Amino acid sequence: MRELRDVLEQTQKNGVAVGHFNIADLVLLKAVFASAQELKVPVLVGVSEGEREFIGVRQIAALVRSLREEFNFPIFLNADHTHSLVKALDAAKAGFDAIVFDASALPFEQNVHQTRKAVEAIKAINPSTLMEGEIGDIGTGSEIHEHAPDLSKGLTTPEEARQFVESTGIDILAPAVGNMHGMLKSMVQGKTSKHLDTERIAHIKKAARVPLTLHGGSGTGDEDLRKAIAAGINIVHINTELRVAWRRGLEEALSRQPDEVVPYKILASPVEYVKHVVSSRLKLFNGG
Ligand SMILES: [Zn+2]
Hints:
This protein is an alpha/beta fold and 288 residues long. It is built from 12 helices and 10 strands. The chain has helices spanning 4-14, 26-39, 49-55, 57-70, 85-94, 108-125, 158-168, 185-188, 198-208, 222-231, 240-256, 263-285, and strands spanning 18-22, 43-47, 75-82, 98-101, 130-134, 144-145, 172-174, 183-184, 212-214, 233-238. It is globular and about 60 Å long. The model has no long low-confidence stretch (mean pLDDT 96). Residues 81, 181, 215-216, 237 line the site of zinc ion.
């Protein structure tokens, strides 16, 4: 079985990106795995601190590992936005393939210091765990936001990116390039979309020379995502779009079958709704 590191190298060569989808339950995991399996493309499952707490750190690791082993399939697990060393260590010990250590709310020098410490501690446990670091401001919360935050001052510069990668030893960098966590109401309605600074991505890629992750991909237009991947993005995070689909699928099933109580008969609908989103994003990320 290939490791995540090999998969990322391959995506860099092929000019495609790995889809990263956050999950909080078995409905989402089933949908993500089924889509990736149908399209025969590698996939990354992400769990934030809240999502990990809900499923269980070791439990989600066991679930993803069982899929990878039974189906001999490149499905990988990422500890998304980990804000403390303790939680990063828990994920490494449970066997996560990658950890996003997020100290981006701190001033640059402190972010460097904390991230370097986390990289050293995690690599001491398992040198093959990939470590991702974050710089810049991309907002918080993969939810529906009323107003757009002003993130213009928090955009990552190529020089910061180079310095951050060199002084922390991270394997993957998540820059701020016009992306944002969550979606605005108008984006959920399909009236507006996010725009990415693709020129900045290309400059950052040249300076940082590591795989790049785009967080907050939900609500970004297809063409912007295509250009971002061509400019050097190797992992794209989608969360809010899945959450919206999960809720719509559940509402549809409950209103269609008001007397149904069998969970798997109700939950078949959210699985289909989420699968639809994951499949279309995976096709796009893989050059479709
Ligand atoms: Zn994120």
